[in-house]
Amino acid sequence: MCGVWAALVLTITLGATIAYVESVGRIHDDAHSSTLLVLGSKVSDGVPGNYVRGRLDTALRLYAGGRVSRIVVSGNGRESAGDEPAVMRDYLHEHGVPDDRIVVDEIGYDTSASCRNIRASGVRSATIVTQDFHLSRAIALCRHAGIDASGVEAGCPCATWTVLRNHLRETLLSRPKMLLTLIG
After folding, report:
1. Contacts (Cβ under 8 Å, ≥6 apart) of 99
2. Dihedral of the CA atoms 97, 32, 146, 18 (nearest 10)?
3. Which domain covers residue 86, as residue numbers?
């Protein structure tokens, strides 16, 4: 049992280290690419949840700054998941972003898939928009996929317990999963 805990601690430490190293100097207050990648999150009944709304509001701020010409919304497009990208697209459109500036990725089932999908579509450089607990890992995964990635931290009108839950999930599950992606 002690060996399992040691392996878990080592994996988390390595994952955190890789994500940190890949993101050093790449997290900014403004877009460093004309393409934004806005990562999906929970939606309900056609309404963005708090996390995705924070990401979308950050994308709107960056788009209004004039340096962004394309916003890729990536998430789970399945109806059973609420069609995250369609809800995200509609939110951006309702807030003044023209449809021809929004690209929808319906098969961004996880961060790694979102990065691979935009790379396959020809994107070589992107600014990722997500919350702080997720941003370093997202940058690392996109760089691994061949994207010159930087990031902007999105705000979140979120309850403290959900923020804590997501920090734990990121540390205990997502960073170890990232390691498997990077070495696999």
Report:
1. 89, 93
2. -120
3. 20-178
* CA 152 – CA 90 distance, rounded (Å): 22
Tokens of 171: 């540390």
What domain count does the chain have?
1
- In the structure encoding, which two tokens stand for residue 56, read together? 């979308």
Q: What is the CATH number of the domain that holds 141?
A: 3.40.50.620
Burial class (CB in 10 A: 0-12, 13-18, 19+), 63: buried
| Structure token digits, residue 140 | 């690392």
Per-residue pLDDT of 110-142, as tens digits, reads 999 999 999 999 999 999 999 998 999 999 999
Please give the Cα distance from 140 to 178 (Å, whole number): 9
- Residues ≥6 apart with Cβ < 8 Å to 51: 41, 42, 131, 154, 156, 158, 162, 166
pTM: 0.85
